[in-house]
Amino acid sequence: MRLLIGQTGAPTSVVNASLRGFLAGAEGHDVLALRGGPDGLVDGRFTPVTLADVPPEWTRRGGSWLGAGRRAVTDDDLDAAVATLAEHRVDGVALIGGNGTMALLGALTDRAERAGLPLYTVGIPKTVDNDLVGVDHCPGFGSAARYLTTVVPDLARDHAAMRSIEPVRIVETLGRSVGWLALAATWHREDPAHAPHLVLLPEVPFDRAEFLRRIADTLDAHGRAFVVTSEGAARELTDEPFDAVNHTRILMGGVSRRLAALVTAELGVVARGEVLGMVQRSAGALASEVDRREAAEAGRRAARLLAEQATGLMVGLHRTGTDPYAAGYDPVPLADVAGRTRPVPPEWCTTDPADLDDFHRWLAPLVTE
């Protein structure tokens, strides 16, 4: 078989592990690399690739060996992609990505079928936002979460030292429509004295008066207020393009700064908004070993599914054990995943980090190795 492996959307610090896992699983088959994300799919930027071409050290670096990107794919784009796949005699396509990628792969599957092109398709899950349906957690999330569990407690300790001139600090994580990373940033298992006092999630409607009341009460109780917010929380305070098609308009972040300005204006205290930004998804030095292994295994399983002529599927990921932790990889239909978002479940939708012990137990195996 001739297989094509590509990535769309943004990189993660373990996405190259999925690539190497796929190439290892595809041994004995002819594999082409799709370079440059969806633009490369439309333009036919396909080059031969083997496992030896992707050095192991790339699995410990941020970025993407394949290249990445986003595009609002049109019907004409799909027709061009199908024609290019036929020209290169591609039998199976695997794309690494999130729910937008799975929607693209599903559309490509349908377009190829209508064009009479036999094509097998399998998705490899990847997103730091952890918003994919069909997984307990998504490859890429564990490493971004581990980064946050490492640096945010230090930011809290720094804030405690500077409380006299900076009483309020608001730290912003990624997460345009879900709050999984903001929840991860509340991790305080080794240092409960410096846990965040408040967390803001997109799943919990922002209440301006309640937010200001909580900040005032926290200042009275502790002399400082340390807050974690998702970039997609309190979105009414910003003009960010949260609903842009296929996320083709860049989110610059900044809700933490808007919240800090609100605190200063209404409460008359100094507040700092801190935007952590892209380092969350790119810090290979702090990547989770569990995440790296699972990303590689997801890639390997995708290659096996294509070799078995499976189609219209995404590699799933679920827990098969908790003590010790273990994962399974049963596939799920693309139709169940494409374009859908998995929010934080109701039991973890809280603004109070003290209510998140169960979430922290769920998170622990992903960030402690």
UniProtKB/TrEMBL annotation:
Family: Belongs to the phosphofructokinase type A (PFKA) family.
GO BP field: canonical glycolysis; fructose 1,6-bisphosphate metabolic process; fructose 6-phosphate metabolic process
GO cellular component terms listed in the entry, alphabetical order: 6-phosphofructokinase complex
Full protein name: 6-phosphofructokinase 1
A UniProt-annotated Pfam family: PFK
Cofactor(s) it depends on: Mg(2+)
Domain of life: Bacteria
Domain named Phosphofructokinase: residues: 3-305
InterPro entries per record: ATP_PFK, Phosphofructokinase_dom, PKF_sf
Provenance organism: Micromonospora pallida
NCBIfam families: PRK14072.1
Metabolic or biological pathway, per its Swiss-Prot or TrEMBL entry: Carbohydrate degradation; glycolysis; D-glyceraldehyde 3-phosphate and glycerone phosphate from D-glucose: step 3/4
Statement: the UniProt record of this protein carries the keyword Ribonucleoprotein: no
Alphabetic keyword roster: Cytoplasm, Glycolysis, Kinase, Magnesium, Metal-binding, Transferase
